[in-house]
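Question thread 4412

I'm putting together a teaching handout and wanted feedback from people who do this every day. The idea is simple: show students a protein as raw sequence, then show them the structure tokens that encode its fold, then repeat with a second protein so they can compare. Below is the first pair exactly as I plan to print it.
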Amino acid sequence: MRILLSILSLCLLSSLQAQENNVKKKKQLPAFKWVNEIPNKFKLPGLRHGTFKSPSMEVAVGYCIYIPKSYKQNQKKRFPVVYYLHGGRPGSEVKSVRIAKYVHQAMEKGDIEPALYVFVNGGPVSHYNLPELKNHMGEDIFIKELIPHIDKTYRTITDRSARGVEGFSQGGRGTTRIMFKYPNLFSSCSPGGSGYATEKKISEENGMENPNLVFAKGYNTWDLARKYNEQYKESYPLDILIHVGTKGFNYQNNLEYMTFLDSLKIPYRKVIVEDAPHSASIIYDKKGSEILKFHSDNFTRTGKNK
């Protein structure tokens, strides 16, 4: 009996310690901020941090932007733009800024045509709108405020055929929702490692991701794809490239989502990265050139990167 009690005590102690560690981990998460500076380890030529004052929130919002050399060399030329949506929650414009090194290297080598790359702060619930909470309109800040600011501040080509959107994980979910919701704004779209199983749950459970997080009806990648297919596909065709690693925990639900797109006859391309885990950096190490060329070739094909 004493041995059994000792074992039970040890199990209880281990459980309490695990709970305590989980609490500590949660407490260590940084508080959300709309402005976050680029860490020194990610700084490189052409990468800048900028801010604008949000008209709706009346606070500063940060973004990072990669500007190629030719932007300064040719003062009359206008450039295509790719918007990159970070993974994880809460938002921060520096969460995915490590991808800028791949962009820089490819442009320096001449592997892809010059373009601006903007790294977006997705807001408190990363790329979603939650109108019932103050300053939680991450999608609207991006679509209605950041894009107009970029077009006003930099020499961009303000046409959907010269505007791309890409993201990974949570950012892949955001990319998919946004490309189907605003096909009039984007043409080149590359969602990666997206959590389509969670999006499907939201679709099937009246907007509920979990009891504490409920979105508007139809505000998910499944229902928006259906709406796009019915209303916008012919008027605003999208070039779509889905990328995912075979070792990533979202691999199977990405395959399921591709089957779903097939059923809707929505065309797409795919980059399946063998043995890659759920990591945008590792996928870029292995197949980043294909993703970068996807956008570059789309812009060149439409005559918006000459």
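The second pair follows. I'd like the answer to focus on this one:
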Amino acid sequence: MKRKNTIIFENRPEIISFASVAGKKESEGPLGKFFDITSDDDTFGGKCWEEAESRMQMAAFNKALEKAKLKKEDVDYIVAGDLLGQLMASSFGMADMNVPFLGVYGACSTIGEALILGSFLVDGGYADRVMALTSSHFATAEKEFRFPLAYGNQRPLSATTTVTGSGAVLLGACNTEAADKRRLYVEGVTVGRITDFGINDANNMGAAMAPAAFRTIKENFEDCYSGIEDFDCIITGDLGNIGSEILYDMFINEDIDIDGKHIDCGREIYDIKRQDAHSGGSGCGCAASTLCGYIFKQMLCGQWSRILFVPTGALMSTVSLHEGNTIPAIAHAVIISVE
């Protein structure tokens, strides 16, 4: 059922399994115990940072299959993306899987886009199982978008720290025979619009992304004739401290107080003061690893029954800022419930 920008699925895709991979810094943070795979070696045994990111995706993919007791031949499509040029981490990481591949880019919101497209395939009957997958790595992102680590530049407190992590979600047709356990579903999705508030500071992506998150959440409420009271929690991707505060202020202007029902993956994944993470976490792996490492497990344990997951992305490129452009942003919303 389509309602303007929101689609409510008639055949709700089930989240069959999920897996998370995290680097050393992330494993030492508040969510460390929730990740499936962690490593003290941020190269993950590879020769370079880019290979490390591909290895994280392979590990997440294989772990999700292992938890579902399935093989790669049981997956109809992979929908995956990352921050690197030409989706290098995903293309190289998934090359040996021999599964039909769709590469997607939504910056830090990529896991949302992958979940949306994967859900379309399952709900429409075009696939029985789809793997939605993404990753990011602190060192690859710094090299691609900012400065090589050897440069040793200082970052302002408004900057976020790119998460070294990966998350994989295996979507499938609802299994009515598995009635003896709690199961996660994708109820519906709201596809975001590109939103540009004129921010041109690459070290303050939270400010660029907050208006996109506000717009998508508000459109979801309007499309579904609902409000904050219809969700146990609204979880944004990686607004960090500054972006979260901006989001609160934008909703207060609408006479809506989301403070008590909102958390942000970028705020949760690090102990911001103890770990020197500046404004919090960001990157494709931030929302993905937090979703697959923490959020899903909390839902299955009964903490939340219905959430609105809203990963956000700053759609800048390595060229756009040098040409003096502002930072357009996007946010997608995924309604997830457990029964």
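Top answer:
Good format. For the second protein you could add a caption like this: The domain at 2-172 is CATH 3.40.47.40 (Peroxisomal Thiolase; Chain A, domain 1). The longest strand covers residues 14-22.
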